[in-house]
């Protein structure tokens, strides 16, 4: 499973990228707003750091303007994936951009039917939002599983990009189901390293290091 990092914070992207943990980046208008940066500038900076796909989201609601925005975003770098919402206008934009060979990430997907439409429209990525379904007492992971089954049934090449990931557990569950990519905030990726038995074991080893005066350097 590929890891995308869901942030527009340059320092955090750099840190994880240097560790080989970043196969791509996803942003959205809320993350751009949080960064306080100009969308075109910060997106260009991210594309200069990361070689994998960098999702940049359109902000218009009608297809013509979305398409113009998408084309402008795509000019930033070769690794831009234009992100469009899963609306009828977004699907039209997806089809037009993917016909032009531009990567498209269709976002705000909450149903298997929406995922089928995105694949038909030539999406490179479909972004089902797990956490926001969980918030409504639904099971976001069930949606990932349903889309995996449907895409495999028909050989759809659209990549399942599990999004709205809130916990380290979501990451391993997505990997078990077979999501192609998971995009997560840096804190969630870092939390994957945590285990209480690792901490306990290390404390025991450190006590013995102290007791025996073990030195390496
Ligand atoms: O990748 C989508 C993500 O940014 C949304 O996450 O936690 O706001 O539902 P969240």
TrEMBL record:
Q: Name one GO molecular function term.
A: transaldolase activity
Metabolic or biological pathway: Carbohydrate degradation; pentose phosphate pathway; D-glyceraldehyde 3-phosphate and beta-D-fructose 6-phosphate from D-ribose 5-phosphate and D-xylulose 5-phosphate (non-oxidative stage): step 2/3
Catalytic-site annotation from UniProt = 83 (schiff-base intermediate with substrate)
What do the Gene Ontology cellular component annotations say?
cytoplasm
Record-listed E.C. numbers: 2.2.1.2
Protein's cellular compartments: Cytoplasm
Whether Cytoplasm counts among this entry's keywords is yes
What is this protein's function per UniProt? Transaldolase is important for the balance of metabolites in the pentose-phosphate pathway.
The record's similarity note reads:
Belongs to the transaldolase family. Type 3B subfamily.
Q: What is this protein called?
A: Probable transaldolase
Origin species: Yoonia litorea
Name the encoding gene, please. Answer: tal
